[in-house]
């Protein structure tokens, strides 16, 4: 019975004083086993609806002090300034490598098909008859023209809109790279130009 009384008192969180134990001594069980919970009249719980949910109009406001607290306004997102560091621009996921290769491939594919249609010369003949110098010169010029805005902090996305978007340029460059490889492979297997019979 004494143990039952002590356990109930500990669960309720109040100090327990046992009158006598088996050996006849008074023993006290401290109340530090469970903290005493005091009810505070200053504690208020406020529930806010998620964005897009409607509040229940039948609920009553808590107090005037809760109504006077101004709502914090979210800070606007600051756009991160693009890096002009050489290693960031030429990193694997940087803005320069795929974009410059795509631009070179677009010009190279159109030039290769145009010269082949005009002269009938395949890709290897075009490169051996002075086309290699034209390729190197146009590659250097186009690479320099593409890098100058990147080192000044201008992004392609900030200058693109409508049909001429940055994503469209990337995809066109990828297709042009695939087209140049397919053109060279087809002419190698065929042994002649693409349009020669």
Written overview of the protein:
Among the domains are: 2-33, no CATH class; 86-190, no CATH class. It is 51% helix and 3% strand. The chain has helices at 2-12, 64-67, 86-89, 97-119, 123-151, 156-159, 166-190; strands at 16-18, 27-29. A two-stranded antiparallel ribbon has the order 1-2. A hairpin with an 8-residue loop joins strand 1 (16-18) and strand 2 (27-29). Helix 4 runs antiparallel to helix 5 and helix 4 (97-119) crosses helix 7 (166-190). The longest helix has 29 residues, at 123-151. It is a multi-pass membrane protein. The chain crosses the membrane at residues 131-151, 171-189.
Number of helices: 7
Helix content: 40-55%
| Main beta-sheet annotation | 2 strands, antiparallel
Sheet with the most strands: spatial strand order = 1-2
Strand content: under 5%
Q: What best-fitting shape do the alpha-carbon axes yield?
A: elongated
Radius of gyration: 39 Å
Find the count of extended strands (DSSP E, 2+ residues): 2
Give the rounded overall mean pLDDT: 74
- Unreliable runs: none
- Class by alpha and beta content: mainly alpha
| Terminal-residue CA separation | 109 Å
Transmembrane segments: 131-151, 171-189
Subcellular location: Membrane
Region (Disordered): 54-74
GO cellular component, one term: photosystem II
Give the helix/strand layout.
Layout lengths: L1 H11 L3 E3 L8 E3 L34 H4 L18 H4 L7 H23 L3 H29 L4 H4 L6 H25 L7
Antiparallel strand pairs: 1-2
Helix pairs in contact: 4-5, 4-7
